[in-house]
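Purpose: get a first structural picture of the assembly so the mutagenesis plan has something to point at.
Setup: two entries, given in the order below. No constraints added.
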Amino acid sequence: MSEPSTTTTHSTPRPTNLFWVACLALFALLAIFPEQAKAAKELRSVAVADPYLEMHTGPGRGYPIFHVVDRGESIDIIKQRTDWFLVRDADGDEGWVDRGQMELTLNPDGSEVDFRHAGLEEFTNSKWEIGVLAGDFGGANTVSLYGAYSLNPHVSLEVWGSQILGNFSNGWTASVNVVHETWPDWRVSPFFTLGAGVIRTEPKSTIIQGEDRNDQIGHAGAGIRVYVTRRFLFRAEYKTHVVFTSRNDNEEVEEWKVGFAFFF
Amino acid sequence: MESRFRVLFLILMAQFALSGCAATKNLFGFGRDEAPPPTAESPGQVIDPEVERREIKEPKIDKENFEIGAFAGIMSIEDFGTDLAYGARLAYHLTEGFFVEGTVGQTEAGLTSFESLSGGARLFEDRMLTYYNLNLGYNILPGEGFIGEKRAYNTQFYLIAGLGSTEFADDDRFTVNFGAGLRLLLNDAWTLRFDFRDHLYDIDILGEEKTVHNLEGTLGFTFFF
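Result (structure tokens, whole complex):
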């Protein structure tokens, strides 16, 4: 336990200020996205080919149908949120239509539209992926966020940031990985990974007297990516790390993680 | 340990060398050497259609799957009283049900009863509690809320849980959080959000290590883009 202090000075105001700056920046960002700018944009039109098209009041199955558009009528697509399209008919009625019904509309030239959602093919061929994993890093808890870019279906580059939260020390790691998938078209796709980065270790002040350290870290590992549904995938992996310390011995750490990711 | 690393490394290199050949071929732009499809011969085509196909450029559909916003409310820190909490959140909606969300928030700790009674002696100086978490949420119970006779707003009740870290009392603490909330869809872009969470972590600042529950209730606005 830390030494009880007799001073009554307040905490530094720095983090608070940082926070308000972040919040202000957020709202400034929102102000930059005026909806009016979108109104002027040209909208994509499709024609209803089914006997009728159902408009819901909101983007979800549970919201009631309040209007139907007849066959042959043209509708403008204002926006899309997940599997729902906000459309406007010729009379100016606006409502949300699900993907299943939108797939049955036709382009102005009579050709079929393509509003399919992502599937196993996109799982194999998508360029970008973002995921969150959590697990065990040498006995400590770890939470990780990663972003990946695929050079081709087999090879991708990943950037990782992890926070390590242990009983005796906390820390951060940042690393760059190369991931190789041998059978990327399989639903359960095994991969191998190799990477390097840095690790910052901060011993807990209440337990150990130690200095914060920055070390280089290298790792090799293996894991699986499992396609779940839509843009979702499950990921589990094992990595063995070597921490190149400034001491005589290098440290070895084993890491297990599971989590989920989505691709786009 | 050392040898295991070495073995794994060798396995990895072998993988790259053996099965990676196909991959590297694509990587360096040699491409797939598939034969072009045989050109279909049109036997006895009499009419030569001179209709030019109009090239229609389809405008892109505006996809709004991200939700960003700020919130404020109250947060109770176990043993340290309740104070104003505020923060920001960013979510990505995967389906109409599932969404992933990252949140950062902050509140300030009051005095424990020990600190108040002892008169001035503080357990630690930096009284700020800052947390972040990464969550998975699911929208259940879509519904409608009525305000007066003429106004109806769509609502979404959601359940959410996730992992993260809390920086408090000079340490980062592994934190689990779960809760529920309600979205009131004001229009097609803006929503009003009520959110209730329980943040759990282990702390030993008052002697024995124990798991604490920090309850948080906030109100915020979010914007879909």
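Chain B touches chain A through 82 residues (CB under 8 Å).
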